[in-house]
Specification:
FAD/NAD(P)-binding domain, five-stranded parallel β-sheet, 8 helices, 301 residues, flavoprotein, oxidoreductase, alpha/beta, FAD-dependent oxidoreductase, single chain, 17 strands, 2 domains, oxidoreductase activity, elongated, seven-stranded mixed β-sheet
Length: 301
Amino acid sequence: MKVFDCVVIGGGPAGLSASLTLGRARREIALFDDGTNRNKVTNQSHGFITRDGIKPQEFKDIGLRELENYPSISFFQTKVLEIIRDREKKFIVKTTNGRKYVTEKILLATGIQEVFFIPSIRKYYGKSIFNCPYCDGWELREKPLIIFAEKEDQILHMTKLVYNWSKDLVVSTNGVEISKEGVQELQKRNIKIKSEPIKNLVGDGGYLQKIEFVSGETILRSGGFVIPSSFYRPNQFAEKLGCEVEENGAVVTDGFGRTTQKNIYIAGETEKSAPSSLMISAADGSKAAISVNTDLTMERF
């Protein structure tokens, strides 16, 4: 059976960038992707120089086409179910199609997913409600916006940030009270705070129009930003392989993508267990790939 130098799991910006770097280093690479990238819900991706405003799928398609220029890169559109370390300290990667692949090194880049404290936000997420002002604030500039968040430090941080793009802001805490000092800090900028629970979000085709509260009050808003209640990795590969994980969910690394387990590397949102931009994730992927190639070089020279 063919033994790959490295298997990259996840075809987002981190995984694509890592695969490109390793392919150009003439390494035998297998890239696996199951099409569940977090940004697929949005119409456009922003902030990646030369690709500003590109559709997420188009970004991925371009990346995959570029990988075709390197014969040592194999791409498999399938889901990885299990990773097992064998007696020879290599890894056996099992997929949903029943196949097995053997590799010396693993690079995890499967990303994260959001959990929303208001489930109906999902219907508008990526079209009129977003998580990252740097990614989507420009498109919502000067519009009447709402900030959804439940923790005071997050409320203040996000609201101050979004204020750069729009001064017409309402904060919804969905039943959570914030401190008198926090209220005063926002009110001095004429930012309204709605602490009562939300009954419903109303809109059409993913575009928010108004918010209904349990009190019966309704406010008109055309978009907004949300801080999810939590993020999670869609798999437990890092934990099952014995990688050390911090209390906040981030995987412990040396700063260059190496985990605490030899021959296991990680990049992008998978490492941080927190959202990241395309540009930063791609940079993380390249950095981790350089670590993989450096280690292969030193071990074999």
